[in-house]
Amino acid sequence: MMATVPLRTNPSTALPPPPPGVAGFSLFFDLDGTLIEIAETPDGVVVEPALLAALGKLADRLPGRVALVSGRSLAQLDQLLGVGTTGRLTLAGSHGAELRIPGADHPAGDRPAALDVASRALDAFAQPRGLLVERKTMGTALHYRQVPAMADEAEVEGARLAAAHGLTLQHGKMLVELRAPGDKGRAIAALLETPAMAGTSPLFFGDDVTDEDGFVACTDAGGDGVLVGPPRATAAHYRLPDVAAVRGWIDRAIEELS
Ligand SMILES: O=P(O)(O)OC[C@H]1O[C@H](O[C@H]2O[C@H](CO)[C@@H](O)[C@H](O)[C@H]2O)[C@H](O)[C@@H](O)[C@@H]1O
């Protein structure tokens, strides 16, 4: 099963930055490549204290209306950012397969039974080729950033194993992942029904193909998407060039809300 990238792409590559004025918005952020710089390995990322402070301030000013929507699992988000920060945010992890809303119960979905067998097959493929396998709560990612020449082979193996084991195939930056169903769009739509977010306009900042479902969900709900990175076909109508620009935008939003 392939995770779909929507075809409702914006024809223009000259997308403007998102306008100021966030008082009536709920803000959704992807993590890797959006709030933190891409690193060589999943564990190699740097989460700066200034980011944690900014997310905390934003959450104070928009209570219940600041969310992380990540391909990382909830456990990874807790570990990377610390529960002092994640506890103040609404979270969608595992590409939308896991939700955590402060004060609400959201039983975790079932981890697909086939995931362990498929993960061992990924190990067998990765080890002799020098690739990295990242095990997550609801998925396993095969990373080829370490050996980019293996990209095509890794993608083919990922697709083969996803089909063989009935798992969802997720493409990403220098990775292919086998995972539980769900997508960031459905997660955002569900979060928009929470009392704190209901009636607000959603704005989702993301850099990767997994974020496109989220851009569509936000547009459908009267908000929009913000592509982070170089121009490409996207459902977002705004763009910021890099992580630093997102961090600058957040700092300005905090000032505006102060
Ligand atoms: O949806 P996100 O929060 O952006 O998570 C997407 C994936 O991010 C991580 O992989 C990416 O970042 C790594 C660290 O910078 C990088 O080495 C890798 O090449 C990128 O694909 C994470 O490891 C994955 O589990 C997430 O799905």
UniProtKB/TrEMBL annotation:
Flavoprotein keyword on record: no
GO biological process: trehalose biosynthetic process
One Pfam assignment: Trehalose_PPase
Molecular function via GO: metal ion binding; trehalose-phosphatase activity
Catalytic EC class: hydrolase
Catalytic reaction list: alpha,alpha-trehalose 6-phosphate + H2O = alpha,alpha-trehalose + phosphate
EC assignment: 3.1.3.12
InterPro entries linked to this entry: HAD-like_sf (IPR036412), HAD-SF_hydro_IIB (IPR006379), HAD_sf (IPR023214), OTSB-like (IPR044651), Trehalose_PPase (IPR003337)
Metabolic or biological pathway: Glycan biosynthesis; trehalose biosynthesis
Keywords, comma-separated and alphabetical: Hydrolase, Magnesium, Metal-binding
Similarity section: Belongs to the trehalose phosphatase family.
Protein name: Trehalose 6-phosphate phosphatase
Species in which this protein is naturally found: Sphingomonas jinjuensis
